[in-house]
Amino acid sequence: MLPVSRHERAAAIPLAEAKNHLSALVARVEQGDEIAITRRGVPVVRLVPTGASGEAASERDRKVSTALNRLQQLRGGLTLEGDLRAIAREGLD
After folding, report:
1. Is CB count within 10 Å lower at the N or C end of the chain?
2. In-domain check, residue 1
């Protein structure tokens, strides 16, 4: 069993564990995790995605850019006039 959950994005794994679970670690890196492999508690190697996974990062960047552009379109020409705190308090009343 790996010593960290699959939901963690950065993990430190002892070398002995890494040797026993290399396939699982590679799968996690393919999903975007970064894994530090340690020897006697000191990080010595880091597993990170390469160019193939860079395509996933490019797709993610494209989606973020698309979302930001859409938010700008939705905002249109709207602007807030006045004190932002006062506007927020007004919305709570």
Report:
1. C
2. no
Q: Are 37 and 47 in contact (CB under 8 A)?
A: yes
How many whole angstroms separate alpha carbon 86 and alpha carbon 79? Answer: 15
How far apart, in Å, do the first and last CA atoms of the chain sit?
52
10-51 pLDDT, tens per residue? Answer: 689 999 999 999 999 999 988 888 999 999 999 999 998 876
In a domain, 5, yes or no: no
19 and 35 belong to one structural domain: yes
Question: Which tens digit of pLDDT belongs to each residue from 50-75?
Answer: 765 566 677 888 888 999 998 888 88
Q: Which of 45, 4, 48, 5 is nearest to 30 (CA)?
A: 48
Q: Is 48 exposed, middle or buried (0-12, 13-18, 19+ CB in 10 A)?
A: exposed
CA separation for the pair 26, 45 (Å, rounded): 13
